[in-house]
Fold these 4 entries.
Entry 1:
Amino acid sequence: NENENNNNSQNNREVNNSLESGNYSLESRISEVSFFDENILPEAELRSEIPGYDIKLSGLEVCVVISLGLNKLRSQLDELVQEEARAFFERTQRDSNHFLTHLTSLLFHLSIRFRNSKLMEKAIMQMEAISDQFNEVDSVDESNNSSSDSRFSFFYQLPCDPYWNIRCQYAKMVRKIGLVKTALDIYVQFEQWEEILDCFILLGRLSQVEEMILERLEIKKEPKLLTILGDIRHDEQFYHQAWEISNQRYSKAKQRLGKHAFQRNELEVAISHFEDCVRVNLLQPEIWFQIGCAATQLGNHQKAAEAYTECCLQDSTNGQAWNNLAAALLEIGKLKEAHNAFKQALKTDREHIKIWENFLVVSAKLHEESDVLVATETLFKLEKNRNIDVEALGMLVAIVENKIKNKNDENKSSEENKVQSQAVQNNWFTNRVLSLFEQITTTTAGNPTVWDLYAKIEKLLDHHEKALEFQIRSCRTIEEPGWESDQTKFNLLYPAYLKLGDYSIGITNKKSLFSVRTMLQSFVTRSTEYFGATEEFSKISSVLEQVKEIERALKQSTPQ
């Protein structure tokens, strides 16, 4: 027995060494289709300056690189990540010396290529080559155990697809480009009834699939076939039959019943069916999402939050579910949790304006300063400069104002306060806010409130000349014809002119003061007839005298 065990161990070592060296002959190797296209830009490749990086990978190393590429694909489905993952699969495809590693690399590689409309035809050709040659390895002498072992080496290290699944993937591809009959023949071969139904609908032969199902049901009643028959006839009794004969284990029957009830707006009934569905199979994120939607419409936000939470746990890439979860959490008063949910939603969909608006509101309530800034910047870019959230800009100015107030202590000297104010000016947050105002006023110069806020923040930062310039622009933007005889227009214009007095303090530019005095003088002259006896008129007149006094003081202090 000991000698026999030693011989078996020696044989196993020889087989393992044989596997690592690879017995995948060129004759049995799956033929590869070239995806080169002169009309497509050069693609990313895995490169490195590290010596020895380009050496041929071993079988186990190929499995690791395939796993890395697959992990990238599952994490996010944007084009940049797909391109990076494709480089991984091309490298493993090149270095594969085993049937399964080569097959797996090809399948993932062509799944990425198929998303490109220019390479879709070549991807189908590659899948056809895989389907045709899948069994060709059987031509190798079956008496050779090492060749059989080589074919299935790394079986447990790779997400291998069975032959029928590869054929169904091929059918899905050809159906997408319009070859429905070809896809139907493959689906019939492997009894994929739901896909068969879809193909017959596209071909306009619904009665034929019904006949096929009825023939099968005469032999044996199967829950899946009853459910599909219910889909064809739009009859819910077949869903109930499927649920009963499966001993309440066929979840798709309850899924269909829930969707029909939801469409009839029988929300409580729908929730009951959906809960039966997830009780059988918990891992159904789309059903949890439906429960959340129904609960939201019923006003049961606690139940909706629980359902959306489960949906997000199972599918973290569902941005709509994260957004709905945040909305439900807001309704039950969980601001912090809602804020985190909005962040997750934005990771999956960064161009959804409504999510950014909700995120901005919650960030403002939680005093998340940096998030308020990022949300305001992003909304300005996404809306193509058409809409400006003035309230958000006001919040940003208030944040900068609070920073300055917190820095300036009453017990500090004016020189120390000046140093603290300079520190705020150099703060990244303040610089980003100023940059945002500059972008807004450059593209949309007709909003007086924006100019007013821009002037305010410049004054807070002791930029007196700029503050006065922007306040003058605010006055000119808000001024409308006929304001001197219209109470409403006068009331809108008056506050902007009143601020000119404060903004004139500290100005040393004679031209700027002259412009302010001229504007105030014009305001007083034109409004005398209708508003000369009002308190507002008196205040503007006082501001005019204040500006004249500043001019006289500046003239006296300036040497002749």
Note: The two ends are 119 Å apart (CA to CA).
Entry 2:
Amino acid sequence: MDQDQDPMDTRSFNSDDEGELNLNNTDLISQPANRGGPDFMVTDPTSSVSLASNLEISSHIQPGRLKLLTDEEHRVNLAANVRSIWSIPQAEKKLFDQEQYEKEAEQCINVFVKWEEHQQVDFITQLFSKMCHYQHGLINGYLRPMLQRDFITALPGKGLDHVAEKILSYLDADSLKAAELVCKEWYRVISDGMLWKKYIEHMVITDDLWRGLAERRGWMVTLFKPNSQGNAHKYYRSLYPKLIADIERIENNWRTGKHRLEKIVCRSESSKGVYCLQYDENKIISGLRDNSIKMWNRKTLECENTLTGHTGSVLCLQYDKNIIISGSSDSTVRVWSITDGSLQNTLIHHSEAVLHLRFQDGIMVTCSKDRSIAVWDMQSPSDINLRRVLVGHRAAVNVVDFDHKYIVSASGDRTIKVWDTSSCEFVRTLNGHRRGIACLQYHGNLVVSGSSDNTIRLWDIDFGSCLRVLEGHEELVRCIRFDSKRIVSGAYDGKIKVWDLQAALDPRTPNGTLCLRTLVEHSGRVFRLQFDEFQIVSSSHDDTILIWDFLDTEEET
């Protein structure tokens, strides 16, 4: 073949065949007579290759361009081959007979419907196996809408309203709002099933913020009770956005420091100062430097009872629904009736001031300036027995906290020690503070401590590692509490600081962004504080108890 043939030409010829035709610039040239063969031959008229070759050749034959052949037989063969090209069908694929298809399809369907269900499924399975992926896709598109079912609408029609209500009761608030808009039947199921009431009740049970809001707003009286009113659904449906608005307002007030302030002036008879306190929705109980315990009405802020008996300052206390237990600088622990204030028991063990105590689940732990920790078994207010004394600190033990797993203590010796609650054996020491530790709280695997080095540290109790150091107070950090969102600390600089706990636990968060707000109202050292979702209650050397309300602020009232 000539070298100047088009390289993109995909037509091929066997160079060993006699009488080969070379295509070069569409010229048809006969081979020399001495090659001993015909100029052109189609050996198999039914061959697609031969047909294609013949078509290619015929398209290049032009008048005056084909040389005369010397052999008459060759000319006859050429004419016969050209005529055979036009006698072959243009496509080998057989045209499908639509009528025949419809007839055969009807026969197949008639047979198919006579089979049992399992036979039909088996047949379709085999049929699918013979199809290609593209056909599977088409069938899937056809089946998808057939497989969808509005079961919420269908269930009540079968007497299963309670099942439809149960299914929708698992939705969150946003999904429940969307479900109301699906159709009238879905709305009816939500309305008749009182699902908004059930959703609010669930949140009140599981979330402290919701429970507190229900109590403070007076909505608790309508919850967890059957409703016979016809418009009950509308009432609870309208109640939900009010709850959300309150929650958003509270969060914003915490961030901005907007609050309403209430003050209790304790009017101590001798020396001033409120060393400790605890509160609930009905009362505040405080321990004073003048050796007394005072019980205040939470709503009127009036003193309802004063307990006397200690001969030294009341440094710590805790109460439950039955008793108050207090520790004093007179080295004693006293047990009081919470109903009438009568003294139930006096425990004498420590040789110096009892600085802190905690009790729960039949166990009490006290700590003292005498450097020891005492673990007590509590059977009743009058039956409290010493179980074990823990010794290890080299200075006064200022604070203790515990749960079923660990007892945690902090001391003026700059260390936090961890003890096993069941065996009372020593576990580990947390080191990091540069000066004595005045306060801590322990919950879960987190310990938060405050020190006279003016810092707050967050610790992983299981690994003993310090997770974060918070700096901002200018003097000794005297009291500290935390929940799932915040840390609140009080210090000898008279300031209360609110910190973002979740951000503090994220090592990527810059230190400068962790303090959300600083509250300054006390004129003396802040000794103790407690807080919940709505308020902080704090006590100070200035002989006052302050209540910082973040729900009902000054502007709203």
Note: Residues 412 and 436 are 4 Å apart (CA to CA).
Entry 3:
Amino acid sequence: LMETAISRAAMVRVYAPDPELALVKSRAFYDACDGITILSGSGLVINGHVLTSTTLLGQVLQTSGAEALHSCQLSPGAQIQVQLEGDPSSQWRNANLVQHLPLPNAAATVKALVGSGSWEYVGRPEGGHMFGGMSDWDLFVCISVLELDTSGTCNPRSKELNCRHPATICRGETCVLVSCPFGLVAPPVFSGSTTQGVVSNLLPLGKATPAQILLTDTRAMPGSEGAGLFDSSGNLLGLMGPALRRSSDQSVPGLSIAMMAHPVLVALRTLVGPTRQLTMGRASWGLSGPSGLEKSFSSGDMAIQRGTKAVVTVRVGPRWGSGVVVSPSGYVLTNGHVLKSDKDESLQPASVFVNGSWCNSDFIAISTGWMDLALLKLNSSIISEWPFLSVEPSTEVERGQRVLAIGSGLFCPSSICSTQSVTTGLISKVVRVGGVKVMLQSSALVHQGASGGALVDMATGCFLGLITSNARHVSGQIIPQINFSMPVSCLTSLATFLNQAGVDNLQTCRHQMEQAWSMSNKEFTEVWNLEPPPWDVHLDDVDAVNLSSKSKL
């Protein structure tokens, strides 16, 4: 895997006269000296050519009108250079811009996903529009093709590269990114940096149109745009887009968008003219159809796929959260705060998105004690034979255990994104009070909307905990990498209810479960409120006097 990924990695830099520093606006990093500005990004080497993000080059194109997409002329004095990862000479080689690849289907998907005004990206052009009449999000997905100057000893990377078809890619599978974040700041340090994550989601949904983009929790920083994203066997999955950030507070969510590689290479093969013909040999392209390069699923993979289906979206008015189908009879477990907001204590009707449509649900129970739980009921015929996650503890939870977080976080559910996203991390800590597990802390990325989702074991897909909350800064900004889940071992009363509840004794079993959920526990509540323990620092009299004096000063 690493040999293939590294052999295809490159760092791309562009420099141009820029005495007014017009090129650096909205950039996370740059270098400028004597009226020259240098920007850098990442690239993927294919057959003596390099693919990179057009966001890196758009501002140095000579033509800015409707002909810009068909013109590859740079502004006077601008140059593009490429440094191949693994080249012992570390030589910067000149490159010519030969083609732009607009991806309208990918652009439409991204626009539908991010909505209007909530999101932007690093390097986004000011004013919302760029060359060729393209919007900023059209530019986000556009790929530029560079032709390397292969004079001298440059190896155009002839090692075989296979490209996965979108239909063969699944949520939760491992992916690796080799890129150059902040590359020009210190190329020996940052070029060829490797990060690993999982495929979080594939968009858009539906069998009629193959997925055009994928979401991943692989760390992709500014400068990673244009890099190749590979699976665990070294097959190409996608090309990384620029880093996303919220328009309101400039926070970076940790999830990144990559354009599917297959449509990119198909567009490249279609658009390259006879005078710039690329070699389309099998060893160079390896374009597989839906039946090619199928992933071989282990039992753990299949369990994870079932888990992603068992987690559903719960909508209450304009708000949404997640839920977990916990029985074949249609019971859905979620958080109490998904149904009741802080501003409105009344219960609102909840709809659940399952099996491709929104379904009404019946309210069963909600906790009034320390546990933030609620139970809904769907008509069993709606989810007949639908996957569910058992609340019977089936595996021990340990610190350092690899987990997946599954939920409807970050992006508002829509026709484009109506399935759950998957992120990966570790169990950071199992919090116990008096020997009882009361909280699981994980490092998997969790965002607003994932409350009520599932934390599952990455190896087996077993349900470990109900995602419940995040840590926040004092400003209110969420910290996605610090989050807390209710252990499945705390759900014994729910397990009893699901096993015993029948037509005749439903109300009795429900009452017993509500009693268990309503029990108060001061120590458990303090843990979930992140309250510090009692002050246990003792000062002698002299130190206390000194401290008092300093506080007055």
Note: The mean pLDDT is 83.
Entry 4:
Amino acid sequence: MTKNQEKLQALSEKLSHYAQKFPILLSFPANVYGIKASSQLQQQATTTTTTTTGLEEGVSHEEPNYTKDNVPLRTSSDFINYRLLDTDIDFISGEPTSLSTLTESLQDFVKDLEKTGCYESVQVILGRQSRALSSNGTSSSISRELDVVLQEKNWYKLYMGGGIKQDFHPAASSSGTGMIPKMQFETSASLINLTGETDVTQLYYSLDQTSTPSLSLHHTRPLYSLLPGSWSDAVLNMDQGSKIGITLKASVDTLDYDTFRSSKDHVQKVSVKVSNSTVGSNSTGHMPGNDGVYSGLEWSLAFRDVIPRRHGTVPFRYDASPEVIAASGPNLKHSLVADYRLNGYLTDDRFNPTAGFDAYGGAEVAGPPGDVGFVKLWGGASVHVPIVPELDTDASKRSGFLKQVFHGLSLHTSIHGGAIKGLDFGGLCYSGGTGRHVTNISDRFHVGGSHQLRGFLPSGIGPRSTGGGASAPGGDSMGGDVFYTASASLSVPFPGNKFLANNGVRLFAFVNSGTLTSFENAVTNVGSFVNSSRTAVGGGVSVGTAIGRLEATYAVPLRYAP
């Protein structure tokens, strides 16, 4: 690089640094406009106008086309301004905000609105000058108008297509449900933003490849918009209060556990969920789309019926173990679940990280008026440490073979655990008739499979029946009360293929260990609990995608059972 080029680069950096710190004073509230198509923003009025109200006489400016051809909106302007107040922009003190803070905050504001699914496009435009008036009527400092331009989606949406069914539990990332994803037919009808608060009402129906139907109806909206006067104000006065969402939901579904425990759960459920985002209130916290820190609280009342697998040829006969048949039958579950997740907020990539820290945790309490009682805790953490820095193209060409193979090497460690303890609430909830407060098979942890304990089948470890149905010849998984899994792995960008490496595909080698047992065994004999650990080693390929982490692994179990 020549001296002139160095000078130009240094000057460019200084200008950029100055621009990022440049103070801008925004007027508030923001102006909210509607457009039919994004092309309207390209069309600016060719006429100029002058005004003597709020500006010095004779000052001319172009009037944007979207202000003249404004399309009526369903969205409330108050809602938009509430959302703006929850950004890092200081609208209250009247002090200017730096351009860098302004840019970052408005980008987050736009992303949050787009995630609601109510808009085709959200654009923020600033720059038109306005002069605020002081108390004596004279002009004071110049501020910039803030225009929020919305292209709303239609008020209704009809959908018909296909998808993949995967039943998630709040603790699913650490203690899987034993479910295998299945193809399904999906159809839904939605009412979108009818009240102007990004509210969504949806009726959803699906039919999977085993002809098992599911039906749900939910309504999602910001919490403050559902509460009266002072309650609404109290929510809005909370940090990020306008983003807090609530979902009211009723559903009927059948969860298929035939492959691992020779039974199905038929569930009829009503629930109310509040979370720190409207998107999060309508899904489990770790689902793709819930970016950033998530926290939620859900109340639910569910009527569940554990149905053993029927024999394929003999009528009125079950094809399940005696233990599963004994655990079958209806029950009423009344519970409260609290869940917290970083969702990769402190990592460089949510689904395939190479640096950073991630964690999650949750708790569930079930009791009267339901007939199952328990307290359940789960949590986990992972640490990702880059060991060898990645090389650019020129450095890679000059480096030796080992450096080319191991550049971008990262170490990954994780640990997960959970425990459930049955409660009878003085005899109001089922205790198994043994005085040991037995937990329900549907509430226990089921551990094994990829992303949990590689080298073992889903629900492949822990207490099992001596025999099982035709779909579970090794014995039905009965689940356990206490579990842990731990893993350590090394990963590198995919070697020898620049395209795969540049698109986040990585090779990794791992070792993982874990166990699952009853509460009594874990508490009374810690040594036995640790010694019951299963262990496996192996390698694989992973990539982070918009729908989550995808990986293919080959594992060799070193220890199958205690």
Note: Confidence is low (pLDDT under 50) at residues 44-60, 133-139, 168-178.
